[in-house]
Write a structure and sequence with these properties.
- This protein has helices at residues 7-15, 22-29, 39-50, 60-65, 67-70, 80-88, 96-108; strands at 2-5, 34-38, 73-76, 111-114, 126-128.
- The chain is an alpha/beta fold.
- It has one domain (2-128): Rossmann fold.
- The protein has a 5-stranded parallel beta sheet with strand order 3-2-1-4-5, sandwiched between helices.
- Helix 6 (80-88) packs across helix 7.
- The longest helix is centred in the last third of the chain and has 13 residues, at 96-108.
- The two termini are 15 Å apart.
């Protein structure tokens, strides 16, 4: 299975794995699962930390570049195709970070792993984290 992690899922994996549902934990721990993490998640982490809405055990730069947090994951860059798709999505979700994740999951044909119920409003294969 090819999976795109929502930002909070990525954070939970390393700081609060007990928050993941059993199905989600099984998926992320399965060596056969291809885990993808978007550049938009790095941006979201840095922005929320700077705004005081996210606590991290270290600076965003240190956390994001720590090899443990990126182990066995593929970094997904943001392309023009992703940006165009995100801009064309219906306004079911106002969060631009989440809209980009939906667009990337659609374009790259990835399963989106997220606890955000608003993601179900989009035409994207999703599993609830």
């Amino acid at each position: 299975m090819r999976v795109l992690l929502d930002t909070h899922v990525w954070l939970w994996m390393w700081g609060e794995p007990e928050r993941l549902r059993n199905e989600a934990r099984t998926i992320v721990e399965d060596p056969a699962t291809e885990l993808n993490v978007s550049a938009v998640s790095a941006w979201e982490i840095a922005a929320k930390h700077a705004a005081g809405r996210l606590r991290l055990p270290s600076s965003p730069e240190a956390w994001l570049t720590d090899p443990r947090h990126r182990r066995d994951m593929t970094e997904l860059p943001i392309t023009f195709e992703h940006a165009i798709r995100a801009g064309a999505l219906p306004n079911h979700h106002r969060d631009p970070f989440d809209r980009m994740l939906v667009a990337q999951a659609q374009v790259e044909r990835l399963v989106l792993l997220s606890a955000d119920r608003k993601m179900a409003a989009y035409e994207v294969e999703a599993i609830r984290a």
